[in-house]
Amino acid sequence: MTPGAEFFRQIDPKICTDCGKPMVEMHESYLNQCDKCLSQTEHN
Ligand SMILES: [Zn+2]
User: Fold this and answer.
1) Residue 12 clears pLDDT 60, i.e. is over it
2) With contact defined as beta carbons under 8 Å apart, do 33 and 17 qualify?
3) Can you give the chain as a three-state secondary structure string?
């Protein structure tokens, strides 16, 4: 078994639709943007 596969299975990695960076934060997992881009969007 590969520990890496288990790791990715659990975190369910997402990619920020704005900057394209992978998001590892578990909170706000329902969003498609990282915290940084979300803040920029709010200020717009
Ligand atoms: Zn982003």
Assistant:
1) yes
2) yes
3) CCHHHHHHHHHCCEECCCCCCEECCCCCCCCCCCHHHHHHHHHC
Residue entry with tokens 């329902």: 30
Sign of the alpha-carbon dihedral angle for 27, 30, 34, 35: negative
Please give the distance, rounded to the nearest whole angstrom, from the Cα atom of residue 29 to the centre of ligand 1: 13
The alpha carbon of 1 and the centre of ligand 1 are apart by a number of angstroms equal to 32
How far, in Å, from the CA of 24 to the mean position of ligand 1?
12
pTM of the predicted model over 0.85: no
